[in-house]
C-alpha cells in the first residue's frame, strides 16, 4: 500500500497583504505561483517593532513594496535566507537597499545544476553574516537558531524560533508537496539525514516558505522518510525487470504525477540512485548520471 502523506494544501491569504497568522508572526505571499512554488513564496515577519524577515522572495519590487507598506513604522533588523533559489533569496537585495538590514544565511549558492527544473539558483546572494548549524541571532521577543538541513540544496537552513517552538522549514519540509532533490547540489543522503535530524527536535509547528503550516511535524517527517523508502523500493522493482534508464522508470514510478513534472522527477530519481550507488546497491554502465543505464549491483 502506498505511503499516505498527510498533505496540507488549504491556505487562506491575500496577495500583497502582510497578515497576522500567529502571535508575533506575519506573512505576505508573493505573486509567483507555479508548479514548484504552490501559491507563491511566503515571506515571514517575526516580532513586532524590530523584526526579522525570512525569505524575502523573488526579485519583485511589487512584493517588497507591499512588505514595506505592511511594516510602516517598524524596523527590519535581520534578513534571513533559508537557501539560494530564485524564489527565496533575490528579494533580499531589494529589501536591504530599502532598509539597510544585513542578510544572514549559510553561504552562497552551491554547485547545483537542477536549475532548469526548479526556480533556479541565485548566484548573486552572499550573506553579510554566515549562520552555521546551531548559530543564534535575536531581537526583541525572538531568538532564532540556524538548523543546517542540506539535501534540497547544500546551503539549506531551517530557522527555529525558540520562544514559539516554531521551525521555518523553507523547502526542506512542505505541507503541499515533497521536495525536489536535484544533484549535484541536492543530495538524497543529506536530505534523509536532515529529515531524521528534525525528528530529534521538539518543534510544535512548521511554517514552510510555500503553503500552510504543518501542525503535526513528526508525523509529517516520518511520512516523508517512508515515502522515500517506498520510492527506493519502486526503483528496485523496476531494476529487477532488467537494466533501465531513468526516463524509462520515471513514467512508471511517477504514474500519478503530471507529465510536465517528469524532468524534476527524473532529478529526484537520479538523487535516489546516486545514494543507492554510493551504498553499493546499484551500478551504472557509465559515470552515474541522467543518461546512464542502471542495474542492481
Structure description:
It contains 6 helices and 15 strands. By secondary structure, it is an alpha/beta fold. The protein has 2 domains: 19-216, Ribonuclease Z/Hydroxyacylglutathione hydrolase-like (Metallo-beta-lactamase, Chain A), CATH 3.60.15; 227-296, Arc Repressor Mutant, subunit A. A 7-stranded mixed sheet has the order 1-2-3-4-5-6-7, covered by helices on one side. A 5-stranded mixed sheet has the order 8-9-10-11-12, with no helix packed on it. The protein has a 3-stranded antiparallel sheet with strand order 13-15-14. The longest helix is centred in the last third of the chain and has 23 residues, at 217-239. It is elongated, with a radius of gyration of 19 Å.
Kindly report the CATH topology of the largest domain: Metallo-beta-lactamase, Chain A
Strand content bin: 15-25%
The radius of gyration over CA amounts to: 19 Å
The N- to C-terminal Cα distance equals: 26 Å
Q: Which percent bin holds the helix content?
A: 25-40%
Please state the second-level CATH architecture of the largest domain: 4-Layer Sandwich
Label the overall shape. Answer: elongated
Broad CATH class of the largest domain: Alpha Beta
The unreliable regions are 111-118
The run of helices and strands is EEEEHEHEEEEEEHEHEHHEE
Q: Give the beta-strand count.
A: 15
Number of H- or I-type helical stretches? 6
Domain module count? 2
CATH superfamily of the largest domain: Ribonuclease Z/Hydroxyacylglutathione hydrolase-like
Q: Mean of residue pLDDT?
A: 94
Strand order of the largest sheet: 1-2-3-4-5-6-7
Largest sheet: 7 strands, mixed
Amino acid at each position: 500500500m502506498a505511503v499516505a502523506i498527510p498533505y496540507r494544501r488549504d491556505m487562506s491569504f491575500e496577495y500583497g497583504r502582510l497578515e497576522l497568522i500567529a502571535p508575533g508572526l506575519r506573512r505576505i505571499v508573493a505573486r509567483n505561483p507555479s508548479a514548484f512554488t504552490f501559491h507563491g513564496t511566503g515571506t515571514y515577519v517575526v516580532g513586532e517593532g524590530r523584526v526579522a524577515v525570512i525569505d524575502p522572495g523573488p526579485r519583485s519590487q511589487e512584493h517588497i513594496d507591499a512588505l514595506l507598506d505592511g511594516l510602516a513604522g517598524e524596523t527590519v533588523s535581520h534578513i534571513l535566507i533559508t537557501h539560494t533559489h530564485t524564489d527565496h533569496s533575490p528579494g533580499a537585495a531589494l529589501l536591504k537597499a530599502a532598509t539597510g538590514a544585513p542578510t544572514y544565511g549559510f553561504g552562497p549558492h552551491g554547485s547545483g545544476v537542477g536549475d532548469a527544473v526548479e526556480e533556479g539558483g541565485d548566484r548573486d546572494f552572499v550573506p553579510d553574516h554566515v549562520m552555521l548549524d546551531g548559530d543564534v541571532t535575536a531581537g526583541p521577543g525572538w531568538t532564532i537558531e540556524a538548523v543546517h538541513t542540506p539535501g534540497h540544496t547544500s546551503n539549506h537552513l531551517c530557522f527555529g524560533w525558540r520562544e514559539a517552538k516554531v521551525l521555518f522549514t523553507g523547502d526542506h519540509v512542505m505541507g503541499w508537496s515533497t521536495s525536489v532533490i536535484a544533484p549535484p547540489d541536492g543530495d538524497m543522503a543529506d536530505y534523509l539525514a536532515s529529515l531524521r535530524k528534525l525528528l530529534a527536535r521538539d518543534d510544535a509547528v512548521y511554517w514552510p516558505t510555500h503553503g500552510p503550516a504543518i501542525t503535526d511535524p513528526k508525523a509529517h517527517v516520518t511520512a516523508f522518510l517512508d515515502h522515500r523508502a517506498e520510492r527506493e523500493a519502486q526503483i528496485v522493482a523496476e531494476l529487477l525487470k532488467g537494466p533501465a534508464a531513468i526516463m524509462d522508470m520515471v513514467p512508471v514510478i511517477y504514474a500519478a504525477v503530471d507529465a510536465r513534472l517528469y524532468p524534476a522527477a527524473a532529478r529526484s530519481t537520479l538523487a535516489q540512485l546516486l545514494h543507492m550507488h554510493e551504498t553499493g546497491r546499484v551500478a551504472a554502465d557509465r559515470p552515474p548520471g541522467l543518461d546512464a543505464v542502471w542495474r542492481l549491483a
